[in-house]
Amino acid sequence: MKIVIAPDSFKESLSALAVADAIEAGMRAVFPDAHYVKIPVADGGEGTVQALVDATGGARVEQRVTGPLGEPVDAFYGMTGERGEAGDTPTAVIEMAAASGLEGVPPHRRDPLLATSRGTGELIRHALDRGARRFILGVGGSATNDGGAGMLQALGVRLLDAAGRELGPGGGALAQLARIDAAGLDARVADAEFHIACDVDNPLTGPRGASAIFGPQKGATPEMVAQLDANLAHYARIVERDMDGNAGHAAGRGIAAMPGAGAGGGIAAAMVVFLHGRLRPGIEIVTEAVGLDAAVQDADLVVTGEGRIDGQTVGGKTPMGVARVAARHGKSVIAIGGCLAPDADAVHAHGIDAVFAAVSRPCTVAEALAAAQDNVRTAARNVAAALMLGARLGASDCGTAAPG
């Protein structure tokens, strides 16, 4: 029997690989001779680097870069190993939040007028130096609203004001943008492919744009939101004017209204135009990168999971991505969650056959986090025991001996 174990991390307690290890340990107590294939996955957000590094035998790379407020920060990215679907193509996995993230900025210092995405561009440049020519970029959790201007500057694009001076950092400086000179863009970008994990359809500007929807959580007041939105609209016009038809770059036409362009404070728009980036659902990128489809083809069972399974799980989170892959091959899927919300049964209509909670008794959140590994192992053992019991009962009904 082949069992594919493909969970996400349990936030604040277990990495995706640790969850997979715990599930295997629990199931192995009942099915010791089964063939277990562990594939840690993620949905393109937090934990994606670690999941892909673990799944492919890759490496995490530490690098000091420019933080969102212009101060040096210790960031990281991942380089996938030989077990990934990309084969011999060196693939870098970058979480924007690691270099340009909101979580590392104290609430009283959050200011999207000044926050820059330069550090994300520095991670891309460093990965290019290491030979990466394929990139997976998660753009959630950013502190920025600069349309990717800082990232572009780190890669050699010049954003100039009317006097020919380089723009300063942040979304506030975009009001002074007069001309874009992309001649200095790192030439290696032309030979690379960029896959952008984007699970929102917000445009760059307007009432559903980057500034209006995501600006307030980054510290923007209503007045700042209006200013940032106007600045991004101006930026989009200059991009369209200077990049439309510019050899080696995508056309900038319609970038302000493009679905998903507002992701990451608008960095998605810059990635599409200047890096030929492709916006795709995060879980789709990750499951493809780790070769989940090939692993599931001949599996007897697929087990997935995440920290909390609820009605929002069906909106593109990891268990749903795993279930979609399994459905293509007619495989049954079981999900184990750190906890189950009252609406968790919504997943049954989307390819998950059964869900189980890891926590089996009343406890505090702190207690649940501390005992997560034991809880997941116990839940997995009970799942396997139920499967074994079902097989015995089925065999008994048929008048034959139970398997094993």
From TrEMBL:
GO terms for molecular function: glycerate kinase activity. Keywords: Kinase, Transferase. GO terms for biological process: organic acid phosphorylation. SUPFAM superfamilies: Glycerate kinase I. The keyword Transport does not apply. It comes from the Bacteria. Transmembrane segments: none annotated. InterPro entries: Glyc_kinase_flavodox-like_fold, Glycerate_kinase, Glycerate_kinase_RE-like, Glycerate_kinase_sf. It holds the Pfam family Gly_kinase. Coiled coil: none annotated. Belongs to the glycerate kinase type-1 family. This is Glycerate kinase.
